Amino acid sequence: MNNVMFTCVPMKSANVLFLTTVIPSQKRGGGEVASQAFIDGLRQNGCQVSVVGYMRKDDYFDPSPHELLVEKRYIETRKAPLYAVFWIVLSFLLRLPYSAAKYYSNTYIKLVKFLLKEQQYDVIFIDHSQLAWLSKLVNNRTKVIFIAHNIEREIYLSHLKKSNNFLGKWLYAREAKLVGRMESELSKEVTEVWTLTEHDANYFSQLEGNTNLVKALALPPNSDRTVDKVIEKKFDIGLIGSWTWKFNEEGLRWFFKFVYPELSSQVSIHVAGKGAEWLREKYPNVRYEGFVPSAQAFMAEAKVIALPMRGGSGIQIKTLDALASGSAIIATPPSMRGISLISPIVKIAEQPQDFARLLSVEVSDWNTQKNKIAQEITSDWLKTRRKRFQNDIASSIEDKFQAMPQMLKS
To answer: How many domains does the chain have?
Structure first.
């Protein structure tokens, strides 16, 4: 007969293994920004975190001692069309979603097995559902937490609805079915599920057979601190994002197809971020800047930030960054998903005419005093959000230790 003894492990000695898709310290996209926020939050709470993941072929940074590289590989389909064929074949052979087959490798499996053999981890994170195939390696070893950045099933169902060709519909239907099954099974296998919005938390809580704890964590903005002074405004409207991501691109094209014609030709518009080269010299009052060294500085230089997201899942990292910039914000409802801030400089519009009208009003009414007062409201909200995020991580990790079973034979 076995007896179970519960012990409490001090936070400072917590040894954490963080399994992710791409080593996120360079924060090249929203998913990596979110992953790094969790890693930083764990470390700030005294945990020692080992991060395991891939690097892109064009990454040239040196991983830190706590970043364990699986290998360099292509990540984005658009950069590796030949690899896409291999990933599709692999997805059928392994019965995995295509989005998971992209990250599957024996090298990753061998590295995780080696780490589990060499060290004892107090908590193991599976970051992104695309790594669900690793769950069988870590189950029954320690406390396992799944970080669900999005509801992937919802994303692919949205793509399915918008697809206009038979092959596309079939592939999206297959992906939605397989990724939905993968998310459901993973949420039942782990100890706890962390999400970025209450909507996503409700989804995972209501999955049939899931009795594990699910909680939404208040992800902080990418910027270390809010803008504490009014920066000189250099243009009227700013848009920034990773335009290679399908939902971002759809939002940007919606903006220029439906909102832009409603705006005065005297309004200056700047667009930052990779993937919108089609905008160059297309409109007389629009400047496409491409990649900018500081997204925070770019947003702070705009009188108004336009957030035209039309779909997707999870929280929008750029929305949090926009709030930290101190500039006024006009956003669609999906852009504010998971954010409950009420502020004079944040307004929501769904229809293009309303969106354009609010942009015009904010551009014409902008003044330093109004911006400063509203900025104080936003700053207080963001500080509270950062504190809540740290506290949520601390309480979750401590809960794991308070209920950590040490199986002893009698």
So the answer is: 2
